[in-house]
Each structure stands twice: as C-alpha cells, then as structure tokens.
C-alpha cells in the first residue's frame, strides 16, 4: 500500500509518534517509497545534535541513556533515542530486555524511542541507522541519542555517525588491554566511568587517562576528552555529562568541526548506500545459479575466488 | 618488485615458513600479483580442515588454540593458526600481547602462526582472512585454526568461514542474556566451557545447554552440538575437544554438509571480493571531489543520500 509521504512527514513534524514510527519502518524496510521519504526529509534535517553512546555490555548504557533523556527533557528538549541491539545474525530478533528500563519515558510525548536490530549481513546496520537518525532529526528532535554495544566494527561505524561520541566504561570490566582490543577506546569525545560508586572507579579513570594520553600537552584549541564519573542509576554526574556534551558541541561549532564531521558522515553514508545497491545487483545477477556455479568450481579447485569475482563484476558493469 | 609466484608456492608446499609468510603478505596487501597468487593456489586447496574458535575476551582463546595445536601436533598433523585481532580501526595495529602464549610452538616447523589485524573499513577483514586460509591450506596444513574475538558482526562472518565453529565460554563471564547479545552463541558446532576448574562452570554449561535447546529432541541424524569442559592452561579436556571436532567433521562428510558449507563459503567470498572491487571503483570515481561535493549538498539539505548514491552508481555502471 502506498503511503502519503508528505502527510506522514507533516505529522512527524507535529511530533506524532506513530508517524515517526511509520517513517522509520519505511526507511528500515527498504520500501519502494524509501527514496520519496528520504527526499522529503532532506530539507528538514540538520537541526538535531546526534550523540552516540557506546560501551561493552554491562557498563550501564541503557541506564545512562535513560538518565540523559531525563536531563534533556528537564531542559525542555525533544529527544530521540535509537537503541541498536546487536541481535543474532541468525534469528534476526533484538533482545529488548533492558529497553524496559526506558519505560519511564514511554508516555512522554517529547521522547521518541526506537530499537533497531543489527542485520545479518555486512553493511546492514550501517545502512539503516543513519536513515533512522534522519527521520528523528526531521521530526524535530533537538537531541538524538544513539546507543550501541561498542564491540564490533559495525558498532564503531555507528558511533562515527554521531556528532559527539560518548564511550562508557565501568570499574572492573576487564583490564585495559582487553578494553583496547574492543577497539572503542579511541573514538570518544567524552568518556564516562559509570557505576562510580563501585570499587576501582578511580583506578579505571586513571588508567583511561593514561591510555588516552590525556595528561600530555596538546596544541591550544585542541579538544581534550573529559572523563566524567557517574552513577546513572541514581542520576549522579549526569548533569556533568550534559555539560561536557554541550561544551564539545560548542567547541565543534566554533571551529567548523561539526560541519566537517557531518560532511564526512554524509560522504560515508552515500558510499555505503551505493555499495549496498551494487551488492543487491550482484545478488540479482547471481540469481543465484551463476554464483553457485562459480562457488562449485572454486571448491573443486578449478577457479580462484578473484577470477570468479571478476566474472561477476564484468557482468555488472559491462566491462 | 615482482615475485616468482610458482617458486614461492613450491617453497610453501615444502613447508618453508618464509614462503608462507610472503604469500600471506601478498594476498593481504592486495599486491598486483594477488590474482596470480590466488590462481596458483586454487588447485592446491581443499585439503585443510578449517576450525574457527571464537569467544569473548578473557575466555582463554589463545590458550585453547595453543593447546589444540599441541594435540594436533602429537597426532602428526601440520597446523596453521590464523589469529585475528580486532585492532583499533584508527591505529591499524594489532595487539599481539597474548600471541606470546603461542611462543612454545614458534620453533616447530609443523606449525605456522599468523596474526592478522582487522581493517578499518567494512569488509576488510572478511576479505583478507579467507585468502590467508587458502594460503595455509595450499601450503599443506592439515588443520587451520582461525581464532577470533567473537563479539561483532565481522567476527561472526569469519567464524562462518570455518568448516567447524568452536564457541568458547568461561564461567562468570556475565549472564546468559549478555552472552546472547554478543550474537555468537548460535554459531557453534562445538561449545567449550574453558576454565572449568572455576566456580560456576557447571552452571554455565547447564545454562548453555538450556539456551541452545540441546535437551530437546532432534531429527535422527541431526548434529547435536556437544559442550566440552576444559582447563586449557593444563591441557585438560583438550583431547575431548579434538574428538568432538573429528566427530563433527565425519558427520559433515557423511552427509555432504562439508561440501555444501564450502560452496556457500566460496560464494560468499566471491561476493565480498566483487563488492570490494566495486567499492574501490567508487573511491576512484569520487577521487574524492565528487563525493565531497555530494556530501556538502546533503549537509545543506539540498540532496538526500539515496539520490546522491544513485548519481555515484550511475557513473560507475553507465546506467
């Protein structure tokens, strides 16, 4: 069924949650009207401040996100939350258990919360999340919080979709090397040591400070990522996180960094969409008899995968 | 400098580690001779049994891999190890700390160990690892152990490159929901609860058994993934893991599952290489002035990312 896109977008602008939900479903599901929706949203975007929150399981991301929502709502801001769940690539379902913690905001018309499962194929997540952010932006959210489990490559990519990236840690979550292995330590503009009422919080903050070289001198005007200690479950330190975010935002705006980041993000987004489109064409090409036939020849040792890929690409681009 | 590929391949077949290292570097580095190397390797592949080992940081993957190497060496098998480190996408370097545990095998000519860092771009890892596996296969390894940190999408993809996937757990590594979130639980053909001398090992095994529905009845002939308890640091239970692997291999061979898996893997590999090639063309096309110009128009709200991607793709395929 075709949707009246201009009407839906107008309703989303008025803050109607069902219209927002419908738009996100349209962009998530690669609807035939996807392009129409994206074209309608384009002139309405750019107003939202996008904050990424990432960290290993157990650091208290959902609780921290919820506390930030409360803080921003007190300041009168409209808030969108995109919670990205790395579900199993095989079952396709998201584990929404800890979304329940967000339920306190469920009846607040100034908050829109959406969970999104990662897809089972490469690039699936990177493809859908930026579009959902655009919907929330166009719907008039002042702040969009994107919460991800920051352990894999695709999660790091999502974090890079944000204007400001917050990396959350908690005391006793494993030693520094293990954290660094997860590949998320270097992406933070703001670091939060949550559960700071537990033993080891100061040690975690110190170790982080050391690993990030925060004690070293920097060029004047460079951003020095702050480390904020919080107990999100009791809203302790959350105002300090908001203050750090606003400071980072102001710093980016002053120096043109925000426009640069957004341009880089848009370029990456375009590239991802283009690659996804080409990938789909390969799938169509394969059909998949052709790809299967190539695969069998590879298993038999008659063909190498590069020669097989050349055949596929030639069929696509008419080389 | 051009390399004498046939000579290098012949030396690798003789088990010369420097030739193997050189070949992996050639396929990793996207050398101009990459296609020549892959073509030369193709008829020599298919002999190796590829075992993927994955699990969260701290479960003892390196120790388990090392213990498996010892067990296979005792049985006279030549073993290749590919250790995939999810390094930071920004620094590009792999953290090789725990590779040191493998040093006991460093002087054994029947063992080839290679570390590989994940790349900073989508698909980078998925692209390089299968080629390195092909080199080890062609070099005459009877068994190739691929060790990855199984937390992100790309690690799951690597695990899917294996003939048999081993998922490692350890007691007290977080509750079941958190483990399931990591998205690795469902990919195992064999499960190992390592550090089984610690409290909670039985509970972890029981919980796993429950989550996987292993107690439920299955169709006759279906594979029922075993759960093996080990203390890899003392080599306890390692022979049982090898026995479980061999049993799975025999089961796959009997039922034609091995050939099916390998064909699916090859098809996926071809697709990934083709997409990477197309992606590179986009990068070349952009050059990157064109992509940057599109990105600026998106940030200004003049264009949406899909329309921009259409422009890029049209330039590529001549639509």
UniProtKB/TrEMBL annotation, chains A, B:
It comes from Streptomyces pacificus. The keyword Nucleotide-binding applies. Keywords: Chaperone, GTP-binding, Hydrolase, Nucleotide-binding. Belongs to the SIMIBI class G3E GTPase family. ArgK/MeaB subfamily. The keyword Nucleotide-binding applies. This is Methylmalonyl Co-A mutase-associated GTPase MeaB. The lineage of its organism: Bacteria, Bacillati, Actinomycetota, Actinomycetes, Kitasatosporales. Pfam families: MeaB. SUPFAM superfamilies: P-loop containing nucleoside triphosphate hydrolases. GO terms for molecular function: GTP binding; GTPase activity.
């Amino acid at each position: 069924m075709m949707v009246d896109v201009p009407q839906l977008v107008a309703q989303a602008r008025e803050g109607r949650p069902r219209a927002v939900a419908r738009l996100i479903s349209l962009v998530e599901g690669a609807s035939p009207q996807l392009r129409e929706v994206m074209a309608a949203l384009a002139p309405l975007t750019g107003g939202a401040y996008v904050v990424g929150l990432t960290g290993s399981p157990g650091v208290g991301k959902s609780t921290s996100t919820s506390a930030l929502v409360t803080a921003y709502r007190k300041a009168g801001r409209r808030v969108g939350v995109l919670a990205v769940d790395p579900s199993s690539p095989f079952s396709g379902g998201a584990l929404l258990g800890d979304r329940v913690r967000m339920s306190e905001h469920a009846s607040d018309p100034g908050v829109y919360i959406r969970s999104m499962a990662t897809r089972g194929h490469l690039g699936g997540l990177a493809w859908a999340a930026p579009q959902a952010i655009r919907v929330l932006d166009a719907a008039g959210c002042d702040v969009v919080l994107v919460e991800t489990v920051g352990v894999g490559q695709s999660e790091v990519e999502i974090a890079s979709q944000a204007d400001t990236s917050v990396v959350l840690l908690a005391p006793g979550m494993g030693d520094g090397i293990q954290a660094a292995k997860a590949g998320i330590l270097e992406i933070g503009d703001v670091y939060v040591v949550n559960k700071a009422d537990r033993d080891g919080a100061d040690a975690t903050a110190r170790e982080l400070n050391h690993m990030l070289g925060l004690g070293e001198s920097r060029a004047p005007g460079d951003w020095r990522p702050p480390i904020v200690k919080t107990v999100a479950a009791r809203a302790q330190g959350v105002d300090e996180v908001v203050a750090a975010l606003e400071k980072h935002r102001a710093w980016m705006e002053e120096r043109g960094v925000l426009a640069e980041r957004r341009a880089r993000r848009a370029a990456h987004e375009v590239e991802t969409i283009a690659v996804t489109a080409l990938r789909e064409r390969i799938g169509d090409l394969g059909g998949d008899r052709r790809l299967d036939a190539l695969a069998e020849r590879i298993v038999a040792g008659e063909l190498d995968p590069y020669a097989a890929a050349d055949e596929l690409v030639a069929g696509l681009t008419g080389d």
